């Protein structure tokens, strides 16, 4: 039996309706998920600033699945925590810390600061990130590496400690990310802390882009939660107990 035009139109309409229902169901599920994330972030903030003795719950990157379209590869909790501690070392209430395209480090910063004595002064932290899911945090600042200096004016030349993990292993992304770093870092005489994590094959470009910042290749090997095929290097402009200059092979 041959279907009539009207039957084809009815079948198409039914299929389109099912697709539309699925779209709205997924949209509502995402909205509900983000609302819960926002509530969790607010609860953590309130717990950290309250005067009671209850221990705030730890934030986890499990709430934020990696999006490969955004070139997202989270560090392991141990690795992110290590970076967070290096950024916090020697920090004061006047220190401003920027985490650029490395949200797993930001989450560990939040955990450490939330668990700290509320009466103690804390540095100001910012998360510069393209993924708007992280807008659940009040420290979120939308960042697009393609527009390296389109950021709030108050951030210009204000950052003392900074970690950057450029999302793409390309000359364009790395160069524009370096422009962001130069725009953000404080021009005061006191030393700044700078950490760059990116692929091993970017090493010559990193040395060129950050020459004026005293950058060097460290022997620390960043660890990603789900592994990573590309060899990853950590570059920095300061030494610490966790790393030293990498010996040339």
Please give a quick description of this structure:
Helix content is 37%, strand content 13%. With 249 residues, the chain is α/β, with parallel strands linked by helices.
Write the layout of secondary structure elements.
Elements: H1 5-49, H2 77-88, E1 96-100, H3 103-115, E2 124-129, E3 140-142, E4 161-164, H4 171-184, E5 193-199, H5 203-209, E6 216-217, E7 232-236
Parallel strand pairs: 1-2, 1-4, 2-3, 4-5
Antiparallel strand pairs: 5-7, 6-7
Helix pairs in contact: 2-3
GO cellular component, one term: cytoplasm
Protein name: Protein-lysine N-methyltransferase EFM5
Subcellular location: Cytoplasm
Name some characteristics of this structure.
2 domains, globular, cytoplasm, protein-lysine N-methyltransferase activity, Protein-lysine N-methyltransferase EFM5, Mlase_EEF1AKMT1/ZCCHC4
Which fold name corresponds to the CATH topology of the largest domain?
Rossmann fold
Name the average pLDDT. 84
Gap between N and C termini, in Å? 75 Å
Q: What is the fourth-level CATH superfamily of the largest domain?
A: Vaccinia Virus protein VP39
Helix content: 25-40%
**How is the main sheet built?**
7 strands, mixed
Description:
- It is an enzyme of class 2 (transferase).
- Belongs to the class I-like SAM-binding methyltransferase superfamily. EFM5 family.
- Its main location: cytoplasm.
- It comes from Podospora fimiseda.
- The chain has 249 residues and is an alpha/beta fold.
- The chain folds into 2 domains: 1-53; 58-236, Vaccinia Virus protein VP39 (Rossmann fold), CATH 3.40.50.
- The protein is 37% helix and 13% strand.
- The chain is built from 5 helices and 7 strands.
- The protein has helices at 5-49, 77-88, 103-115, 171-184, 203-209, and strands at 96-100, 124-129, 140-142, 161-164, 193-199, 216-217, 232-236.
- A 7-stranded mixed sheet has the order 3-2-1-4-5-7-6, with helices on both faces.
- Helix 3 (103-115) links the parallel strand 1 (96-100) and strand 2 (124-129).
- Helix 2 crosses helix 3 (103-115).
- The chain is globular and about 65 Å long.
């Amino acid at each position: 039996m041959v279907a009539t035009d009207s039957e084809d139109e009815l079948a198409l309409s039914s299929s389109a309706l099912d697709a539309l229902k699925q779209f709205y169901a997924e949209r509502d599920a995402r909205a509900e998920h983000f609302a819960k994330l926002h509530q969790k972030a607010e609860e953590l903030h309130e717990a950290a600033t309250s005067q009671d003795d209850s221990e705030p719950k730890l934030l986890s990157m499990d709430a934020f699945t990696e999006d490969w379209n955004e070139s997202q590869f989270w560090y392991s909790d141990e690795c992110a925590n290590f970076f967070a501690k290096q950024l916090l070392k020697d920090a004061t209430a006047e220190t401003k810390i920027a985490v650029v395209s490395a949200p797993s480090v930001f989450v560990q910063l939040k955990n450490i600061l939330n668990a700290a004595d509320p009466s103690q002064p804390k540095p100001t932290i910012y998360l510069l990130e393209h993924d708007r899911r992280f807008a659940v945090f009040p420290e979120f600042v939308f960042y697009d590496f393609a527009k390296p200096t389109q950021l709030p004016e108050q951030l210009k030349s204000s950052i003392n400690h900074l970690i950057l993990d450029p999302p793409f292993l390309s000359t364009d992304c790395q160069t524009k990310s370096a422009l962001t770093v130069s725009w953000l870092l404080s021009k005061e005489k006191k030393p700044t802390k700078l950490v760059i994590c990116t692929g091993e094959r970017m090493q010559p470009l990193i040395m060129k882009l950050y020459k004026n910042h005293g950058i060097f290749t460290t022997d620390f090997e960043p660890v990603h939660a789900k592994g990573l095929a590309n060899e990853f290097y950590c570059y920095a402009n300061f030494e610490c107990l966790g790393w030293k200059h990498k010996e040339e092979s």
